[in-house]
Amino acid sequence: MKPAVTLCIDGVPLTVPAGTTLLQAARQKGSDIPTLCFDPLLEPEGVCRLCCVAVTGMHGLVSACSTPVSEGMEVHTESAAVKENQRFILQSVLRNFGRVGHDDPARPAYETLCSMARNAGMSAQEVAALAQGEAHYLTGHDPLLAIAPDRCIQCNRCFNYCEHLHGFHPSGIVDMGGERQLSFAMGMPLAEGQCDHCGNCIEHCPTGALVEKWKVTRGAPDYEAPSICTYCGTGCAIQVQVKDGVPLGAHPDFSDTSVNQGQLCVKGRFGLDFVSHPERLTVPLLRTRPGHTRDCFREVSWHEALDHVAGEFSQIRALDGGDKLAVLSSARVSNEENYLAQKLARAVFHTNNVDNCARICHAPSVVGLTAAFGSGAATNSLDEIDGADCIMLIGANPTEAHPVIGHKIKHAVLHNHAKLVVIDPRRIWLAGIADVHLELRAGTNIALLNGLLRVLIEENRLNERFIAERTRGFEETRERVMADYDLARVEAITGVDAALIRQAARLYAAARNGMIIYGLGITQHTHGSSNVMACANLALATGHIGRPHSGVSPLRGQNNVQGACDVGALPNVLPGYQKTDDPAALERFSAYWKVPMPVTSGLKSCQMIHGAKNGQVKGMYIIAEDPVQTDPDTHLVEQALSNLDCLVVQEMFFTRTASFADVILPAACALEKEGTFTNTDRRVQHFMPVVAAPEGCRTDMDIICELASRMGYPMHYDKPAQVWDELADLSPILSGVRYARLYAGEQLVWPCRTTDATGDRVLHENTFAHGKGVFHALEFAAPEESVDAAYPYLLTTGRRLEHYCNGSMTRKTEGLLGLYPHERVEINPQDAAGLGLQETDLVWVGSRRGRIQVPCHLTQRCPPGTVFMSFHFAETPVNELTGSYYDPMSITPEYKVTAVSLAKA
Amino acid sequence: MKPLPASFLTGRPKIVGSPRLYDYYRSYPFSALRKARNMTAEGIVAELLASGLRGRGGASFPVGLKWQSVMQQAETVRYVVANGEEGEPGTYKDRVLLEQNPLAVIEALVIAGCTVKAERGYIYLNQNYRAIEKALLQLLQWLREEGRLRCVEGAGAFDIQVRRGRQRYISGEETALFRALEGRRAEPTGRPPYPTEQGLWGKPTVINNIETLASVSLIIERGDSWFAAIGPEHNHGPKLFSLSGDVARPDVIEADMSATLADLIGWAGGTVGTFKGAFVSGPSGRLFLPRDLSLPLTIQNGCGNGTVIVFNDTRCAVDLARQVTDFFHSEHCGQCLPGRESMKQAKALMDGLENQAALEPVLQHYQQLHAVLLNSSKCGLCSSGTGIVPALMQAFPADFARHLRHDCPICRAGAEVAA
């Protein structure tokens, strides 16, 4: 506790802790001192001088933001000199501001300045008279940002915030004296630097000098409305900015209870205008002839389309049985719609053949974490990243795939002294600030994680008490690790220096709170589930679980991949993770739905594809998914889909998968409907429509209900709340979450069993969901594909910052496509030299299944022998190269290890 | 005319750039350093306090207090810095001193380092002082080789580095100078914290002017009472004055602060033409008019750094005011809003003088800017630059009236020559 200081502000005595600034003290007292350059997140710069106050006995005024209190100080915030200073500063700012029209992007900032000026004693006329001349926004410097140099007061908040958030300066100051300015205005495009266009600097500009470019070219938004960002599993709360019916951008939610707390990434902020893209599907399409172009379809009415679909599916159900039908639901649609999709499969189609795209990303998390902890979800919340002493980041690149989580990790490392261990074959951004980077050979995770465990055992860094009291199975694991995973062998397998492995293990073990965060680099392997268990082993061995700031948290990729699983869009579980072989659960569902429940086990999504190829599946209903582009081994997927009797695709755009459909149903997107999403830390978030859906598009909920009704199972809900109530009634872990609570702004996470609980942020606090935490003795097995003379490089795949999934949304937003217009294969310069490749040269990348042509990008981010590509671009279909190898436990495909050849094109 | 007092700081041959640098080094007695070796830190500070030495860079802060304040800090990593930026127009005394007796400065910096237990010293030089830098580096190298860069034999490693800055007036400001040494933009930071609390690299720092440090060597060598006996009350010790402008023999003159402006001009060979006025302590200082010729240049009278720029009646006050305004417009840092906006407005005022109907509103506006800067600018630099122009307006209204009438023969002639 700091000693207290007593001072007097405007005659009122006040006692505050030493070190408090005058500004803090005055605000505590209720004085309204205006500020411009002051930013609560940053060190005070004290350059705008607007907060200057008078202190008895001191010459001139002192800046309240940067002056600490001292004993007996007499502070005057309303004196004539103070007000005069405020008037001078605000006059200067407003004189430079130029005229502010109705559509001016800086209008909100201008109004704030005007009210400050009036408070300082200026009349409205005086204020209005200051606005002379025109302000000019420079729009040529950056694809997404615009700046008006005359309005810039050089408070440095934009780039100081950037340094605070990202650790670098996106711009600087040039010249001095009267010519001093920010180098934004020098013509250096930010895109050429390290700027990742998160746009958070905009929020910190006090004068509206720095704005989104669209606000200059299109004008100020007509209105804003809240929603949830759909670009990854983080679940950022956003305020969508709508102009002329088009959501042109978004601002973050600033409340402390939101996931993102005032931050957004480039996709969430700038990537929403796909909604009104001219290629949007607005009429149902029915196939008229074979082929994969739009003209193979004719436009039909909803009535005709739905009748056709219901007829086809009913026929298959009648002739071949419901198990010949399959529903591939989506992690991009709401909880309610996923619930209805699985209800459609189970109650209407009479099959458990329902799955969602968690299958191709985080199904191993569900398998692995359930096996170890008894629950398949992230054990801790995202807010807890700040506060962990050691973060072990494995196979994830959050600064690109989950940027706001990336910000949180950066903050923990840069400002809260967290140690960071990065385990990734690539030198991702966070590896640059990591304490240890274990650059393992792709696909050797188990060996490495066993190696880390071995160090813990050898060096006696285990939490023996935790192991004894809360876990089982450790002895077997210990024996396996001690017998087969000496560090020399681990080093040989993984290519990671044993000394670094030791260092990483020590950091994790020494932490008070160690957090494991992992991504698809763990799961998208033929041993994905085992990888997850290996992560769990480390947490159990050190006891870094069941407490705040610890645990094992997968970063869920899509916005509602957590929710889609929670509500039962999986072949082996019913809503709320109730088993499909649990008679009591089946009984309950059967009674509620008034149908007999299917009993045969369901197909997982990849099995559906194989099933389609071999006739096991005849009709398939795909909601908002694009397996042709995103599933591995594209040729196999294409053959499979072509082999179906009836393929129905519900989509916003004419995707590659849609081109194989018999019927395409145009769907509304998240910004056009109501529902809930569940983010990666199990938070159920409600959203309302922001814009109206285009004429002709219907919500997925609407379409599913219509289809069910036409197939003889009347399904009708007035609104999503009714669907949720049914879901919550049937799912104990969700039963406390209700719409009324979400409307009231409550932040709820599951498990939430009663309406007075807010859910468990931290799982497994006193006991694991299934009793004791389970160790698994794991054996390393080499990936299916290995390099040889013909295919000497390892291809690993992942995401780009600017794009999302199959690119159907991000590639239809001008700004994002402008930043990253086409795919490039990342090659280490050393490999490139051997192949005679220069930057941007076209390269043939070939695997045992196909080859594609792509320009190359030489970068040290890839170690020699490894190349990297994303799967966002239909023109560069990287999944034509990947193979059909699966994790046997979860049937999740291997995306991270493909042997390829490279040749200059 | 009074006789010129004896020289202690200067009066030696120029050694920088001469081939006799090594002889100078060998024959330099280091008597202050030798004496300091037998003194305690407290003893040294007591001596400085007793001598009455005040800083010679312009702000005239008591040197002993500054050192004492650093010694009292809890932080044990500390620095000592010699400020040789000397960016004020018309100021060149430190250059002359360094050219003649660089070891006096090094000696004092070593004493300062030992006294406040600093681990490193820096000498920050004006960009143009290349030859001085070279000589200092050579001298430091010899001292280093002989293990003499310390007060006590075998004491912890103390070293001195030399840095030459950019040609920037602002980097003479202490906190801006620290930022420059740190490799950052030379811009002042707010006070508090003061340099003695958080200076270079955020550590307690003694920063003294070159002449101040040379005076420290004199005090240690000859004793505080010898020093205090020179000059009037509260203005002790020898003082260097940089004379320039319309005088017959512009030079650095060593005197003490009892010297009047007339004395100094006399020692510099007298005014060329008729004395019209002088900037004392440079353009950031005070305007002296003919009636002030008999004022002694004490600290109270605005001696400041001792710069005297004399101008005669062939100079137009408007031209001077414009030069001063332009200088501060381009040389202030521009980081704080009142500073930047005031200097822009001041420049606009002077540039647009001929479009004004009367001088009075211009004067009032300029004075308002000066008041704003005194009140709320982040550092004292801008306000120091806006004081002299209103004084010129009040002292020479006729010059300004000519410009308002678009009829200034002096400036027109200048413009024609320039064209």
What does this protein structure show overall?
By secondary structure, chain A is an alpha/beta fold. Chain A folds into five domains: 4-78, Ubiquitin-like (UB roll), CATH 3.10.20.740; 134-276, 2-Layer Sandwich (Alpha-Beta Plaits), CATH 3.30.70.20; 285-355 and 572-746, Rossmann fold (3-Layer(aba) Sandwich); 363-402 and 415-554, 3-Layer(aba) Sandwich (Dimethylsulfoxide Reductase, domain 2), CATH 3.40.228.10; 793-904, Barwin-like endoglucanases (Beta Barrel). In chain A, helix 2 packs antiparallel against helix 3, helix 9 (302-320) crosses helix 26 and helix 14 runs parallel beside helix 20. With 419 residues, chain B is α/β, with parallel strands linked by helices. Chain B has three domains: 21-228, Rossmann fold (3-Layer(aba) Sandwich), CATH 3.40.50; 238-312, Ubiquitin-like (UB roll) (Roll), CATH 3.10.20; 317-418, NADH-ubiquinone oxidoreductase 51kDa subunit, iron-sulphur binding domain (de novo design (two linked rop proteins)), CATH 1.20.1440. In chain B, the strands form two sheets. Chain B has a five-stranded mixed β-sheet with strand order 6-5-9-7-8, sandwiched between helices. Chain B has a four-stranded parallel β-sheet with strand order 3-2-1-4, with helices on both faces. In chain B, a hairpin with a 6-residue loop joins strand 5 (238-245) and strand 6 (252-256). Chain B is globular, with a radius of gyration of 22 Å. In chain B, 54% of the residues are buried. The model of chain B has no long low-confidence stretch (mean pLDDT 92).
